[in-house]
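Quick one, T. Sequence first:
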Amino acid sequence: MGIDIPPPRIALKVHADDRFVEAFDGPIKRTWASPAYLVGLSVVAIVMLLLPLVYLGLIVLAAYGVYYHTVENTEILGYGHGYARIAAGIAYLAPIIIGAVLCLFMIKPLFARPARRERRMSLVRQNEPTLFAFVDKLCEIVGSPKPKRIDVDCRVNASASFRRGLLSLFVPGDLVLTIGVPLAAGSTLCELTGVLAHELGHFSQGIGMRLCYIIDFVNSWFYRVVHERDQWDENLIDYCENESFYVVAIAYLARVFVWLGRLILRLLMQVANIVSCAMSRQMEYDADLTEIRVAGSTVFEQSMRKGVFLNAAANAVMEDLRDSWRDGKLGDDLPSLIVAKMNQMPEPLIRTLGERIDSRAEGLFSTHPSMAKRIERARRHDYSGVFALDCPASELFADFGVLAKAITLHFYQDVIGPRFRATNLVSTEVLTKQQKQASRGRKVSWRYFQGCLSTIRLLRTDRYSEVSKLPVSQLVERLKRIRQEIVNSSGAGVKIIAEYTEADRVCSLADIVCTVQPYSVRLDYREFGLRGGSIEEVRAQREEAMLAKGRLEPQLRKLEATLQLRVECAIALMGKEVVHSRVRNGKQLHRRLNTLADALVDISSIADVLQRIRGEQPSLRALLYIWCRRGDVFEGLAGNVERLATAQFDRLVQCRERLRSRRYPFEHTDRGTTLADYAIGSVPSRADLGAISDACDSATEAVAALYMRVIGEVAMICEAAEKAVGLQKLPEPSPSSTFPEENDE
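Structure tokens:
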């Protein structure tokens, strides 16, 4: 159940700000659901309620089958003598045991507990009089009952729901409106008003909303029934490894029948989804019409597009927070971070998102119509709207800054749990500055290495190499030749890395396909970016990719040696007093460069092991997925998963051992953090196979992020050292070399 969080301490306003309420220009024509739609929705709801009854009927039928066999086939026990009688006894008992297991597994989901609900943060009318008065007025405009409660959360969305679930179906107006604070932070008041009108439009649909809730409730229940796995399933798998032939035989038969039962349920679930999604799309169209009549067709389109960009920014911020959390730091104003990220989106990403918005693709299981169709429909109506007060939506709240920080703190406590401490919070300005610095480092490294950087193959440097003993004049001459060589080979180098990366990608995808092929998983190979329609063609494509990687290896090693030599020469230059004395804070930068270079040596020392972890991960993830979904069907699957996970576990331990002696080179809330703590963390138990897979994914991501951050700062300092001896920055890489961040969402 949700719990009320004390509201932020802000100065209370005695009266609501009337200008927001008075900005409405009259009521709108209420959007009524057509009788045909309500009849169709009623039929769908009845069908949805009948499907669980079909499920219960299957349980009764299975139980009756067990009962019938038990009382009617007792003559089997008297058949034959000796081994024949033993076989007859097994033939009699096996259906009883299998049937009982099947009934238990079918009954078990009826008592499955729903997923843990998030704690809620509810606003208080006395603290937010303007917001509550505004929502009350908006309810009058759209003809909706007023919500009993207004909640806020950290989603880029708003939603309408029943306050107490099924109980609220029978209580008129027992509703709750939830507003995402990031949505309010990034929207104008017109845009937010339109979104709220959309949700309140659902409220006004009365019977339709109740029928849709029933449909969604049954759909969610079916999903749990089909996909739920627990200790019962594990025990049944363990019985299959029993030494007794009879126990194994019965256990395998039971697993087959359990699989068949779940197959039937999956079919019922698909039917339930298909018949309900079309109705859900129509309900969204009706709510859209309410939004259009309140805010206007133009604002509707603006808010639709704004929502896509805000959601993309929110996803990017979550990735940033995952990286900053490794430093023990989290921004104290998540909505501001999301808005800032949206305003800094690169043009390529904006174009990509725009193409996604304009796509009319829509599937059988889509609960919402495509955005293109919704926008096109809004343009056809061409309403001007009854609300046109254009100001930031944040003005609707008493103290939006305090609220944004309160919801951010609430979000961290809910998601991270006991590991989160107040000391982890840093000001959003500080975190943004650090992220900009890291971004600048990546861009400088992209220029310094002329686009020839890859997180698949890590550069190896040695600050004690032979060039460290050369005088400044020789270092400068060598750097001039190396720099020219890098510029001349930049285009070819970028192409080689792109070909190698593509070959590596093909190998990973082909590994997934080859891994799951023995387990009867149907795949469209073209969706994986693989050509051909058979497993033999996929294997041939994988072989081609492996040959391509082998062919490119010598060229890559030559390119990497050149890049490495440039870094080592620049490190040697910065070590000369005559050079670092010409650089601002040169001594500190010299010491910092040595620290980073040592960290780079340790990071590159695990490159080969990390490559093996990356190579095995697709197969391990695929097998774990099949094992969790259909592991009760395939013999030997558990052993294959355990073998792969154990090998990955050993590699994680090896990586941690190599990194545990080097301190983490960046600021961290825990001053004793090592490279191992940052990149690997705590290695999970050898028996926890899923956690091992997660740890491998986390390690590869963390090492890639750490490597790019280290190499970025190294490049900035090396560039400063070269500039001190008269060597200017290299030109930006060729247009064919695109900075990675421009392609990231």
